[in-house]
Specification:
Blueprint (H helix, E strand, L loop, with lengths): L3 E5 L7 H12 L6 E5 L5 H13 L3 H22 L6 H19 L9 H12 L1 H16 L4 E3 L19 H16 L8 E5 L2 E3 L5 E3 L5 H12 L3 E6 L4 E2 L6 E2 L3 E2 L1 E3 H9 L10 H6 L3 E6 L8 E4 L10 E15 L7 H13 L4 E6 L4 E6 L4 H9 L3 E15 L5 H6 L4 E6 L3 E7 L6 E2 L5
Parallel strand pairs: 1-2, 1-7, 2-4, 3-4, 7-12, 9-20, 11-13
Antiparallel strand pairs: 5-6, 8-10, 12-13, 14-16, 14-17, 15-16, 17-19, 18-19
Helix pairs in contact: 2-3, 2-5, 3-4, 4-6, 7-8
Length: about 450
């Protein structure tokens, strides 16, 4: 059966107009069974992260205020899509918000800050509601519009370990479940539906607790479905024309890249390109599944194709910007050399706190790392490091990665900005810089 997997990100369903546009896109593929994977609406994930933090901080006022703002945001979208407030969707969405409210109320409030593992578990139970909200709104709207559609709970299909906030997929269990449910969904002997709608980002552990696949993990969810079904093509619908050589919200005069190889896409994702989740590409490459990145504003345009390319012409440098970075420099207390046993101990501490290193640099007496400035993990990791080492810590930094750079790239594009750490290889330049003031940077060379 010729099936396609579509992933719709939060920007594509951030309002009622976006939900209607998803329906318009799906109508263009009327003769093809579609698995639609949807993210949380707009900035709902960010808002739910605030709910989690206020919950753990016992900040009842701001907790209730943020919870109500999320509820009001979704209710306003419902009112535009379903003028009849007696529609069943209102009751269903109300039950989801009641579940979230009930979890917060009955969940034990910490008398002391939770451990990292507790925080990660609570994160997955609370933040996961964003995808449950969005998929429910989209399901009832598409059903109202006459689509033959099934609403699947992805937690019944994607099984993971207990690594909350960054769960590892149990492929041997997951793939047969996906094959079974999707086959039943699209077969005439089963439901005979044309669209199977489900949530991105989520899974469940062996006990049935909700897990998440890592921030922005809905791309990976779609890839899990594509790989499990061995389909030919998967599409990610974005608010940009395709993969650009820089984020258009950050730089002017960006250029769309028409096609890139799996290998280059993996490199871009590894270095933090927000267009694709880092885990997405490898299963697609393994099964030789073509990935298209297309604009939901202009669905007829070609977008960007990611496929197996033996060679690829690099027309322009590619810029990747990671904000909210921290630079940690570690040295021994007696300023002796940082040797292999020190590095082993440091990496064990990083692994314990599950801190990913975005860039590292080693000198004789110092080891420096650039990491995401996680407000929970980093302070606790630093408290352990300080028992053995001297540490210096800078935050509110940016990590700029430039693929296929030219020798003059830094001065051409970033002028005199203060660089704290720099690293070059044949194809990649990385710099940790002080936070950029609020102005656009041009990707065109200065006159």
């Amino acid at each position: 059966m010729d099936i396609q997997v579509f992933k719709f990100g939060g920007a594509s369903v951030q309002d009622a107009a976006g939900v209607k546009n998803v329906a318009t896109i799906l109508r263009k593929y009327a003769n093809i069974p579609i698995i639609a994977v949807v993210s949380a609406m707009g900035k709902t994930t960010n808002a739910l992260e605030k709910v989690l933090n206020f919950y753990l901080q016992h900040d009842t006022f701001r907790l209730i205020e943020t919870f109500n703002s999320i509820k009001e945001y979704h209710e306003n979208i419902l009112l535009e899509l379903f003028p009849d407030t007696e529609h069943f969707v209102y009751k269903y969405m109300g039950s989801l918000f009641d579940q979230l409210r009930g979890y917060i109320r009955k969940g034990h409030l910490y008398s002391k800050p939770p451990s990292v593992s507790d925080y990660d578990f609570e994160y997955d139970q609370i933040v996961s509601f964003g995808e449950l909200f969005s998929s429910s709104v989209l399901y009832y709207f598409l059903k109202e519009e006459g689509f033959g559609i099934a609403h699947l709970d992805v937690r019944d299909l994607i099984k993971t370990d207990r690594s909350y906030r960054d769960a590892r997929v149990d492929w041997k269990t997951t793939s047969p479940l996906i094959q079974k449910h999707i086959s039943h969904c699209f077969s005439q002997e089963g439901t005979g539906k044309r669209v199977a709608l489900t949530q991105g980002f989520l899974g469940s552990d062996p006990e049935g607790n909700t897990t998440t696949l890592g921030r922005e993990g809905s791309d990976f969810t779609a890839a899990i479905f594509a790989w499990s079904l061995q389909i030919n093509e998967m599409t990610i619908w974005k608010d940009v024309p395709g993969i650009m050589n820089a984020d258009p919200k950050w730089m002017k005069n960006t250029v769309k890249i028409d096609s890139i190889s799996y290998r280059e896409a993996i490199e871009l994702a590894y270095y933090g390109a927000s267009i694709i989740h880092p885990k997405t590409i490898k299963p697609l490459e393994n099964a030789n599944i073509v990935l298209r990145v297309k604009s939901f504003f202009d669905p007829e345009s070609s977008g960007t194709i990611i496929e197996n390319l033996p060679s690829w012409n690099i027309p322009v440098p590619i810029f990747i910007r990671k904000q909210n970075q921290a630079l940690i420099s570690i040295s021994t207390r007696d300023f002796s050399f940082i040797l292999e046993d020190n590095l082993s101990q440091i990496f064990n501490i990083l692994a314990t706190f599950r801190v990913k290193v975005n860039m590292m640099q080693h000198s004789a007496i110092s080891f420096s790392i650039c990491v995401d400035a996680d407000p929970v993990k980093i302070p606790r990791m630093l408290s352990v490091l300080k028992k053995e080492y001297q540490t210096r810590y800078n935050e509110e930094l940016e990590l700029i990665t430039i693929r296929h750079y030219q020798p003059e790239t830094l001065t051409t594009y970033f002028g005199s900005r203060n660089i704290l750490m720099e690293q070059k290889s044949r194809n990649t330049l990385q710099v940790v810089m002080e936070k950029q003031e609020k102005q656009e940077t041009s990707v065109q060379p200065k006159e």
